[in-house]
Every structure is written in C-alpha cells, then in structure tokens.
Amino acid sequence: MKVAIIDYKMGNLFSVTNACRHVGLDPVVTLDQSQIMAADGVILPGVGAFAKAMDQLTRLNLISVIKESIGRKKPFLGICLGMQLLFSTSEEFEKTDGLDIIKGKVVKFPTGYNGARVKVPQIGWNRIRGGAFAKPAPVMAGIDDDEFMYFVHSYYCIPDREEDILTTTRYGSTTYCSAVMHDNIIATQFHPEKSAEKGILFYKNWANLVKERASTYEQPA
User: Fold this and answer.
1) Residue 80 is among the residues annotated as catalytic for this protein
2) Is 193 a catalytic residue?
3) CA nearest 105: which of 56, 52, 148, 164?
4) Mean pLDDT over residues 194-208, rounded?
5) What SS3 class is residue 50?
6) pLDDT score for 116
7) What percent of the chain clears pLDDT 70, i.e. is strictly above it?
C-alpha cells in the first residue's frame, strides 16, 4: 500500500518513513498533489509552530489536497503538530486559523499546578487513557488503556465534540485529548514512531486500516 507523507518542510519525516516501511507500507515523502491523491493513505506529520506550518501549507498549495483526500474518505493520519493543524484555531503566539476539519481549538498548557511549576513543553513518556476506547477503535488493537507513549509539545487540542476523542492524557493539572478519531481521520498528539514497540503496533494497526479501506474510498478522476 502506497502512503503519502506530506512534506511541508516541518515534519519528522525520517522516523515516520521508517515506521511505515517497518510495518509493510510503501511511503513516499512528497508535496506533489497527484502523488498525494493517488496514495492509499496520507500522513500529515509536524513539529514546530502552528502559524508557520499553516503558512507553509498555504504557500505550497497543500490545503486543498489535504481536504480533498479527507473528503474522499482516504485513511488519514495526523501526528503531533499534524494533529493540531486539523483543528479550527490555535492560540499559539496569536490566534491563527487552522484547517478547521475537526472543530475545536489548540491552547497552551498552564505552567503551574498546586503552587508548583509545571515544565512546558511536556517532553517524554506519558500515559494514554480512555476516550473512545469504549467504542470500536481498530487502530488501538493490542494497545492497553494506560499505555505509555512519547510526547513533545507545549499546546494541546480541545475538540468541540467529545465523541471525537480517542485518548486522553494528564499532564500537571490538565487532562487533555491526546488522540482523535473522526470519520477516516486518526490523529495523535504523541509520536507513535518514537514510542517503541506499542508505537510500531499503532502503525501496524493503521496500515491494516489502509489495506482494508483501499477499495472503498473514491479515487480521483
């Protein structure tokens, strides 16, 4: 299965590419619209600032192809900043409009809790819990509730719809959405490609979804 990893010059492309290859996918790192539309699945990775990322997506004319891929029900995976960009707005530095595919906002972690300072950004391992584990989530098969995944971020997502929440995580005083599942979209604030065995299992599960759904989404004319 061919998957397009969108290259807007702000992604952790090497480790994402290796993870895809490890689970039997055929990844291509690209900003070419025809390659993105022809792929069986699409990944939007990302590290860095929200506003700059939106500027890059606009400048490289990638917004329309992202929305069209999602609209055709192609399996779509957002990672870290790639998850945040799917939301309506971010308050990072100044209010910035996102892709508005998942309704909600991106806000900064509070830096204090019970009189103690909370280190921001969160860097390291933390648990993912609950959320939509109560409903069918094939991408989480074999991954225990309360599993550790690897995080690096200062901002987190607040979906308008609770039913979009796939997992939650607690950091300091904040319990936040650490992954979403919305139609054909899976997106994670954690980095599964940096999360050891269970992170690779996550990629394997997503690869299975790509294979299962390859014949069901609408191909471009």
Assistant:
1) yes
2) yes
3) 164
4) 97
5) helix
6) 74
7) 93
Q: What is the CA radius of gyration of the chain?
A: 16
> Does 93 or 15 have the greater pLDDT score?
15
Select from 58, 77, 57 the least CA-distant residue to 69.
Answer: 77
As a whole number of angstroms, the distance between CA 102 and CA 163 comes to 11
Question: Which amino acid, 147?
Answer: E
Q: Is 157 considered catalytic here? A: no
- Give the pTM: 0.93
Rounded CA separation 92/108 (Å):
7
Min mean pLDDT across 74-88, 187-201, 204-218 is at 204-218
- Catalytic one among 22, 68, 193, 218? 193
Cα–Cα distance for residue pair 52/196, rounded to 1 Å: 29
DSSP helix/strand/coil, 79: strand
Kind of pairing, strands 185-188 and 174-182? antiparallel
Per DSSP, 136 falls in state -
**pLDDT above 90: percentage of residues in the chain:** 81
Give the CA angle between residues 43, 107, 115 to the nearest 5°: 130
Cα gap 155→107, rounded to integer Å: 5
Question: What is the number of alpha carbons within 13 Å of residue 3 lying toward its C-beta?
Answer: 30
Q: What angle do CA 75, 79, 81 make, to 5 degrees?
A: 130
DSSP H or E segment with residue 211: helix 196-213
Instruction: Count Cβ neighbours within 10 Å for each residue of 14-42 and write b for 16 or more, e otherwise.
Output: ebbbebbeebebebbbebebeebbebbbb
20, 22, 80, 153: the catalytic one is 80
Residue 187 has pLDDT above 80, yes or no: yes
